[in-house]
Each structure stands twice: as structure tokens, then as C-alpha cells.
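Consider this pair:
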Amino acid sequence: MTPSDSCCGKPPADGAVAELPMDKDPVCGMTVKPESPHVLVMDGKTWRFCCTGCLQKFRSDPERFLARLAGLSDQEAQTPPPAPGAQYTCPMHPEIVTDQFGDCPLCGMSLEPMFPSLTDAGADAELRDMRQRFFVALPFTLVITGLAMSGHGAPLPLPLPQAWVELLLILPVMGWSARPVLQRGLQSVRMRSPNMWTLIGLGTLSAFLWSCLVTFLPWPSSTGGLGTQGVYFEAAAVIVTLTLLGQMLELRARARTGEALRALLELAPSNAHLIAPDGSEKEIPVSEVLVGDRLRVRPGEKIPVDGLLVEGRSEVDESMLTGEPLPVLREPGHRINAGTLNLTGSFLMQARRVGNETRLAQIVLLVAQAQRTKAPMQSLADKVAGIFVWVVVAVALVSFILWGVLGPGWSAGLVNGVAVLIIACPCALGLATPMSITVATGLGALHGLLFRDAAAIERLDAVDTLVIDKTGTLTAGKPAVENIFPCRDASAGDLLQKAASLAQGSEHPLARALVDEARTRNLTLEPVTEFSAVIGSGMKGVIGGVPCAAGNRALLEAMRVAQPLGTPAVGTAIAQGATVVHVALGEHLLGSITLRDRLKPEAEPTLRLLREGGMRVVVASGDNPEATRAMTANLPLDEVLGGLSPEDKRALVARYQSQGRVVAMAGDGSNDAPALAQADVGIAMGQGTDVAVASAALTLLKGDLQGIQTARKLARASCRNMRQNLGFAFFYNALGIPLAAGVLYPFTGWLLSPMFAAVAMSLSSVSVISNALRLRRLRLHAPER
């Protein structure tokens, strides 16, 4: 290429000025002629480059170079704009909520999204930035440290005095690599919220500024010239480099704590097959599915949203949501959930809940909220951290003065003061329980255990009394009509028709059994007005203008039913464990219906394990006392109570609490809600009523009793892990600060270098996070030893 053909805009050899307008290369900044062959058209704009190399660099990462043109730094360029409505919070300070990704103003930690996503681009950008700064600082730090270890009096072939060479080498480290460290330290001072970054910033600047001072203005001391022995550029460089390394390790470890939530998010498919009104089918993003849309789900596909199966049948694997390993058969009318896997048949479904309203999305949201709560045992660490930084600064200042006045000199005082500042790590105290809670709640969600907050995990570890409802909790919750006993002036069909008509408005398992039996017999259900559920007693309403009621003896006696309730046959069925529903029209008894449920297969072994673990187990049922005792006769129980109203159950829990017991209550119905709210830990079955789930601190998605034992095992392991983390954090500081201050020097002559202090500081946070990650290996379904 001749000079006149240069695409870089160089003037021709004869000195003439090119008449054509020039473009600027976005990579190297050189001016480029319009006839340059290196061209890229992107988003309707033409970019010209001086050479193939610049073109390839731009093509591989256009956002980076466009951001540079806009005046943004590499970190700002790598950090994507927040999604609309996205909010971020601090894992140590959940009260901090902002719509911008950044650092916590109280502790300096990077913020996390309140609603998790499959990719946390902000955290990835921060990790890349920390990695770049670390690898820039590393070679300079190694050279500076090598020079320092060689001794300032060594005859090295240097163009300048060694202190000046070290100063020149540390400028890239302090000027660029240390920028986030110093910015966070300055922010903590501005916000009047001293934290780990305050200490690191003070220590690093103290070593750097002292070294600059004695480099520019050396003066003698009783122990030698400070111009040679008092320069600690290597300490400042090592502290910065190791801090960046520690941040890299911490960011990687923190990312792993969210793997359980990301695993849940990955359950949702990205596309759905929409059936248009004309019958045609097209594939659309799941985000575009609307309530009421009809969707086709083929074998091997994940169900895209919550809805009803309307045509076809198939076996569905729901283990990812409930932990139930066996597939379940789903037929028209059955509810199906987003994220579950269709195994065998193709079917049509109608969308009922989409987006963040699906059960999967709500589970993820609940887990994310629980992860941001603090366990009660964290309160001690918070109180200590509140005064920790001031104590450390005071200890460092006292150490500096004592070593300067009474020890070898101010140079030695600086070394010990900086070591005290660096080794102290309040971050480890703050992370002690949040990291364990994050891992534990995520692991629990993968096994069908939803904790409402961190306090529920800690309280469950201390539970010594378990109160269990019978229907739907201890039993399968699928009772069936066994016998119908009409009075002489009523027929069995009329009796069942009235009971099932009332039951249409109730969600209780007994009510559903009455409706199912009526439909099996092809009975037409009558319209009901003024329906009301009498919690713990039954239901009532108006049928054909006449008051009607169905429920237990107390309900009908309150309605002043004239006839005596029950017959010898009914009494025999009750004694054998059946449940009876009396039905009355006006003040006249129509008859009684007996229903029978079955115990859950896991009831006996689970209750036995709980009792062997030292827990007192009590059954509290609203059902007839005789039927309750008959049903539970062969179970390992400490007490069996029947005929209890919702208030009776709440009072029972309160009575145990007044005796100093820590009580968990397990139930699934609206009548259990008061007791669930009263208990130290309310446990709701996943298939239970919304009010029961809302009142509970723990929800068992699978709805089996084994979940209680599994949750207790997880709670015990989590609390043990949190205590270990707090122990690590206190141990590091209780041992490290005195060592850094030099308490062993009079006896051993040993001092802790600021470089080793930086290593210990980084290890304290990493060890806490790594210990929390051990919870992921917990085998929840393995027997406890």
C-alpha cells in the first residue's frame, strides 16, 4: 500500500491534504479514510477501522469500545443497566434497597438482586473487574516484594535508589488496582459507617503514605536510617493484591450459594406452544402467555405456566417442586404447575397463573425473601460489629504509639498498627449467618421445604413438642364416603344431595369427598345461598329457602335440631375410626354420613423417629374423640385429643408454651390457622388452604410428614453451621488482633507482618463462606446418626 492509499488517514507523500472526510477508529482512535476496506455495519451505523486487527477486536466486544467512546470505564461498560423494576439489596444489610447495582453504603459489599435471575450480570462484571485489577497488581507486587526481601542495603544494579524504584512500581497498584478498595473505604467514612473497608483503607494508606514520606524526607533513627529500613511499599502492595484476591474468591463463593435458586429458575421453560382460536399452533415466549390461553404440552417438555389440564392425560414428574420421586397421573380437571415435566402423553392445558404468579415463581420469591432475613443468633455478631471497627482503630493507634515510644521505633509501630488494621475483619462476622441461611433455604426449596425466614430455621432446631392435626396432615386427606344413614322420613339420595350441595362452597377434604360421591351417583347439586363455613364445626346455608347444615354434633345442637343425633350403627362406625357428618334441614335431622380416611404410609416411621429424637408428639383433631383415638391407636404418640375447636387448638399450643416448651404445629386447614400462628413454628402442608400456608413459618410442598423430619435435620445442620461460622469469625479476631499488636514479641521476638495479616483477613471471610457451602453436601434423606 502506498502512502497515498493509507487507510489511517496519513497525508500523502507530496504533502497534499485529503479532500474526503475522515472517520475515527473506535478501537485505536486513529483517523480512517472512507475508502478503508475494513468496514463493519452494525445497527444501521457504519464503522471503519484502520486494520483487520481493530475490526476483529470491535466485532468480538462492541459494547466495550462503544462505552469507551461514551466516556465510561471498563467496569461501567461491563455492568449492564438494571432491568426495569429491578431492585438490589445487601446480603448483610437487607434494609438497603436500591434500583441500581453497586456497593452497600454501610458495609461496602456488592449488592445482589432482590429477585434472582439466571444470570447476575452485575456480579459477573464486578468479578471480571476484580480479576483484571488483581492480575495488573500481581507482577508489580511480586517485583516490589522481591526488592524488599533483598534488603535495602543490597548492591542492586538499579538506576535510582531502591525506595524510589519501589515507589514507581507501586504507582499502578495504588493508582488503579487499589481504586475500589480505597473508594469503599472513603465511602464508609462519608457514610459514617465504619466497616472492613475502613480498616483496609487506613492500613494501606498508612503504609503507603509513610513510605512516601521517608522516601522524600528520610531521617535517621536510633535503629538506623528510616530512608532504608522504614519503607513499606511492599506491605501496601501485598495488602491490595491479597484483598483483591480475597474479593475474587468471595465473589465466586457467594455466587455458588445461589445455585439452588438458579436451579429452580432453570425449571421454567423459555417457550410455550400456543393454540390460536382457529386451531393453529405457534411457539411463543413464555413471557407472552396470558391467563386463559390454551397451550399444548408434548411428552418430554416442561409445563410452561400454572393451569388446568383440559384435554388428554399424562404422567407428570413433579419431583422438582415437591420432592415426590414418583410421577403422578394428571387428567382433565387436574391442576398442573409450571416447571414440572410431562412424561408420557400430549395434552392441552389452559393457563391460570402466569409470570411471577406461578407457583414456581412464588417459591423462588419466598426463598429469596427468606435468604435476606437474619437469624436471631446473628444479633450478637451485629452488636459486636457495631463497635468493632472503633475498637480495632483504637488498638492499632495504641500499638503504634507504644511501639514508637517504648519499642524499637516508629517504623516498627507502623508495621504493627497496620497489621492490626488489616487482620481485623468485621465482614466475617456479618457473613456468619447470612451465608448459612442462603445455602440452607435454597437446599430446602430443592427438597420441597419452604422456610418463611431465618428465624424459623433457628426455632425449628429448638422444637421439643409437635402438635399435629389429623385430617390431611396425619391422614392422606382423601376421605371417602363409607355409609349413609338416613332418617325414616328421608332417602339416602336426598341426604347426600343436601350435604354435597352445601359442600360445593367448602375446600375441606370431607366436603370434597361428599361432592365426589354425589357426582359418582349422578346426583344434581342444588344452588346454595348464604353459605358460610363454621370453622372447626361444619357448614351451613340456605337450600330452596330452607336453612340447611352439615357438620358435627356441636353445630347441629346449636341449630336446635330436635331429633337425637346418631344411631348405634353410627356409634359403631365412629368407634372403628370413621368420621361422621350429621345433616339437618331446618330443625329436622335428615341423617348421618360416615366417611373414612387412611393414615399416610410415612406417618408411623416418621413419628417414631421424631419421638426417638426426644420430641413430644401430640395429635389435636377437631374430629370426634372416639374416631380420633381409633384412627391413631397404633401410632407412637404421647397424647391424642379430639373434638377440638380452632380456639381449643390455639389454647393447647399456648398451654405447652407456658410450660416452657418450644412448640411446632402441623396442619393443613383453615381451622388450624390460629394454632399455626400461635406456635413457635407453624408447619403447613403444601396442599392445604391458603390461610394455613399464610399462617405457617414452614410449608411442606410435598405435604408428607417425612418433610417434618427432613426440615428438622436441615435446621439442626444449619444452626450448627451458623455457630461454627460465628466461632470462626470470633476466633480469627480474638487471636489475630493481639498477635498483630505484638503481644508475643516480649516472649518470642515474633511479629506479625501486615502481609500475613492480609492473608488471614481474606481467609476469614472465605472460610466462613466455604463452611456455609458444606451444607450443600448434606444428605437430607439419609438417616441421622
Summary: The first strand starts at residue 23 and ends at 24.
